[in-house]
């Protein structure tokens, strides 16, 4: 049986690439013939190139930094992802890019986020009639309210899937009314489907018991500054983007989580790899228009009984920072959650 995975493997996002690697690795371990469909939206590439023609020094500088980071990601993809021989750039290629597979798995990551995925066409909803089995695994919407016009556009595509699972609770409320073929299930991110040992070849082990790794996106600068101030006497602080000209590779990012005693993050995959590597962590939530992304973190923390790892101010962090995690309890719950994911795949790949 030949399986194609359609996901956001092409972005310069640590978790996006690693979840693609994890799903591929898990399925290969079950002896499936699996590859990642090498779809990289032309609009993403074109927008990136256009920025180099900008008259703004700041814009050019930002994109040079992003280009340098992308070269590191490209090396990782080439070495560790089994990409399709053909590279696709246009959403209109959808019928061609899924041909030749028995099953296409869409996901994981925010492939059904209306504010991201629609920028690259409707390809992640597989808007073609075909006998190929369509499965959505741990798709994320990244929002709590789905735009009505977008939902109307993709409803028929959603109902054409064979089976659907999602990464966060709010996604169920949005997707289930549009999917009549069965129950939409919450499943874990692919990163927990494989053993932690699968990531160790990418880790340069150098444990720092005084280390704190801070990885935040769309950060609350005031809160992060206050947290850093409380850490100064006790911890050495590391950030992956501290040098914009030499941002972390995927291997360095994983090592940053593995090698440090404490992790501060608002990244979903920052949380996931803290769990995988048994690192104490705290979460600062994303604020403003992107706050809908927090539900994927709420979902996993609620399932594991770790809601108290969310900090909303420096005072809470000061009180909580000495509290350690009961990893025995977490591992038991995470193992049960993993079984839900593996059962979903097992049942729907038959």
UniProtKB/TrEMBL annotation:
InterPro entries, per database record: Polysacch_pyruvyl_Trfase
Polysaccharide pyruvyl transferase domain: residues covered: 13-282
GO molecular function, one term: transferase activity
Record keywords, A-Z: Transferase
This protein's record includes keyword Transferase: yes
Superkingdom of source: Bacteria
Name of the protein this chain belongs to: Polysaccharide pyruvyl transferase family protein
Organism per entry: Marseilla massiliensis
């Amino acid at each position: 049986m030949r399986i194609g995975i359609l996901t956001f493997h092409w972005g310069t996002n640590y978790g996006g690439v690693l979840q693609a690697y994890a799903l591929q690795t898990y399925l290969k371990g079950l002896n499936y013939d699996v590859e990642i469909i090498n779809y990289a939206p032309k609009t993403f590439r074109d927008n990136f190139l256009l920025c180099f023609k900008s008259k703004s020094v700041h814009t050019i500088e930002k994109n040079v930094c992003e280009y340098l980071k992308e070269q590191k990601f490209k090396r990782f993809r080439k070495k560790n992802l089994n990409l399709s021989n053909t590279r696709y750039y246009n959403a209109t290629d959808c019928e061609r890019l899924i041909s030749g597979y028995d099953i296409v798995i869409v996901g994981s990551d925010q492939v059904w986020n209306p504010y991201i995925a629609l920028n690259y066409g409707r390809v992640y909803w597989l808007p073609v009639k075909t006998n190929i089995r369509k499965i959505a695994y741990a798709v994320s919407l990244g929002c709590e309210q789905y735009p009505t016009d977008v939902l109307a556009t993709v409803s028929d595509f959603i109902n054409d899937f064979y089976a659907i699972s999602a990464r966060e609770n709010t996604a169920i409320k949005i997707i289930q009314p549009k999917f009549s073929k069965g129950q939409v299930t919450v499943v874990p991110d692919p990163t927990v489907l494989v053993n932690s040992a699968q990531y160790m070849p990418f880790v340069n082990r150098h444990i720092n018991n005084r280390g704190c790794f801070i990885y935040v996106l769309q950060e609350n600068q005031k809160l992060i500054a206050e947290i850093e101030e409380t850490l100064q006497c006790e911890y050495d602080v590391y950030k992956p983007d501290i040098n914009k000209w030499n941002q972390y590779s995927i291997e360095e990012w994983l090592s940053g989580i593995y090698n440090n005693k404490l992790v501060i993050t608002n990244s979903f995959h920052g949380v996931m790899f803290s769990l995988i590597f048994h690192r104490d962590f705290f979460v600062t939530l994303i604020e403003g228009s992107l706050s809908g992304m927090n539900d994927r973190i709420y979902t996993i923390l609620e399932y594991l009984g770790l809601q108290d790892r969310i900090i909303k101010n420096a005072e809470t962090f000061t009180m909580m920072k000495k509290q350690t995690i009961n990893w025995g309890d977490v591992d038991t719950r995470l193992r049960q959650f993993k079984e839900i994911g593996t059962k979903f795949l097992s049942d729907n790949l038959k």
